[in-house]
Amino acid sequence: MEEKIILIYCFCDDFLKSLDIKDNNQSKMNSAEIMTLVIVSALFFGGNFSRAHWLLNNPRYIPNMLSKSRLNRRIHGLDLSIWQSVFYFISQIFSKNNSTLEYLVESIPVEVCANVRSYRCKILTGKHFIGFCKAKKRFYYGFKIHMITTAAGKPVEFIITPASTADITAFKCMEIDLPSNSRVYGDKAYTSYSFEDYLLEEELIKLIPERKANLSRQHSGCIQYLQSVLRKRIESTFSALVSLFPRKIHAVTYEGFILKLIFIITSFSINQFL
Predict the structure, then answer these.
(1) Residues 6+ apart with CB under 8 A from 8
(2) Is the torsion defined by CA of 63, 69, 73, 75 positive or negative?
(3) CATH code, domain with 185
(4) Which of 48, 204, 250, 252 has the fewest CB atoms in 10 Å of its CB?
(5) Residue 96 domain flag
(6) Could you report the per-residue pLDDT of 50-74, keeping only the tens digit for each?
(7) Is residue 130 part of a domain?
(8) Largest Cα–Cα distance in the chain?
């Protein structure tokens, strides 16, 4: 763990220097140390800042550790664009190293609370946060993470939407910043003939979703086999990502909950990169 912590800090420090981001001379902790604490909390403690604070409150790690309240303000004070830049930087490397030009798209549910307790939820309000989890065959109250990965399961793009958002609707909202002649494999929820034609004609990207038996444009047997093989990879990636989630993500505001999701996803991407 110690080598991983040092490696994370070196990465954060070098990245901030590349963006020419400088801290105030009076800052007790620099931004690289703040980012390191966030990433360590996401990778080892399910996003629990207090436990990461306890671990890193050591002269050999962070000699000038802030109090928990001041640390929390510094964490929320970091510009969100920094985390977005980190994820984009790593995703571009993953995409460039993906010589097969094959990508996968999938979504996973993120439960804020059980659907029966939604009326008591103070973070979210509205029926559009009610979603259905097919794997568990039950409704839940929260969000969906929609993600595009390489064929090897490396994340290259993601968005977070309310739970009721259809997968194909969210996919249309993504930038889909992929190389020309890429092939994107998805499940049956991504079927949209018009959008498939648009991607192929305008972006030279081929969307290959699974087909229901009663639909036209059925794929050949080899494509169906390839879909089944590749889908196992993205499911493995999501299993590794979900393993970082705590039993309950603690947040008191909508923005705080989204921020913790972004921390976990970005930390997961950094961990795969390192």
Answers:
(1) 36, 39, 40, 270, 274
(2) positive
(3) 3.30.420
(4) 252
(5) no
(6) 898 898 888 778 888 888 889 889 8
(7) yes
(8) 66
